[in-house]
């Protein structure tokens, strides 16, 4: 096992009607900014629950944080934070609202041009306190320190991470996910699945418990994911998916193990360039990434084949092929397309994305730096 330091201080309130608890989590004298997206929270009752919970607080609101939150929108919220002397941000929405709010929290206290936080690794010395009411299980953003923000002017989608933007608390009520459109349900399941794979499907370092945690998440998503479509009103299904997504990226399964993230790096460029949803890009890239890396990842693909998929691995080469096909089949089982051509995109994507990867220094990605620009190019060509 590799050395690690682990802390996840985000307090989770999980279950129905837990939104009311934010009343106790945010200091009574705080000046709160409630941030949200395009309005889904107004039609599914979440906004009303938040308003009730904040009835004794002083609060303001900022709407319109879009999917793949933009720097441009976030900076408008930063201006409001400064104008109103906000000292607590409550993000109500999916990963985009959570990520955008993390950037707002850091940018408001940043000395200099806040885009530098993303483009130059500008150091964050302090950030405004943040809480999250999660409405879309997918990213794990509700209890991690990561944020991904896009720049509409430059077509860049860049990430930063800081423990200072870790949410102080997060409310996860699976009932609020009943209103998700199918496309977003699928996005969430696939994103959580690929997060787990990025931390599991690397090489063995003897981290038995992390492996089994990861396998548990993958098996739960494979079992419960399709039920979110066949039994859309089943609360337990939603609860299992929601908790799996949080556990997939809260630091636990990634502690003490090598991590890959090459699929994500290529995917982020695809979203920035072509506007595909985050998880749509991952479902296209991962099967081809597995195929391209089947030698470097051989041991772990076989472990995944046997323990997660229950395949007979006596013929190892055949088992690896079956595991890749089954992974793509799982994405299809949650109605997620897996080809560039499903989005009317073709071979032209390979050159464009590789240019962007090069621009961002992503020339040797993956757990061993083994995914070169040529490998990424070949993966994209094979994904048409
Ligand atoms: O904006 P509203 O109206 O709220 O609608 C949203 C949005 O259109 C809708 N939605 C959310 N909850 C809903 C709902 N609609 C009905 N009922 C509900 N309960 O869903 C749409 C998509 O929301 P979004 O927040 O964009 O989705 P997601 O949670 O998948 O977040 C994606 C973003 O997170 C980043 C991605 O790159 C992308 O920008 N990621 C963040 C990570 C992190 N912080 O650790 C890691 C991930 O790998 C990922 O990169
Ligand atoms: Zn992701």
Automatic annotation (TrEMBL):
Q: Does the keyword Oxidoreductase apply?
A: yes
**Keywords linked to the UniProt accession:** Oxidoreductase
Matching entries from Pfam families are given as: ADH_Fe_C, Fe-ADH
Provide the Fe-containing alcohol dehydrogenase-like C-terminal domain boundaries: 186-356
Gene3D superfamilies listed in its UniProt record: 3.40.50.1970, Dehydroquinate synthase-like - alpha domain
Instruction: Indicate the secretion signal residues.
Output: none
Protein origin, superkingdom: Bacteria
SUPFAM superfamilies noted in UniProt? Dehydroquinate synthase-like
* Protein name according to UniProt: Iron-containing alcohol dehydrogenase
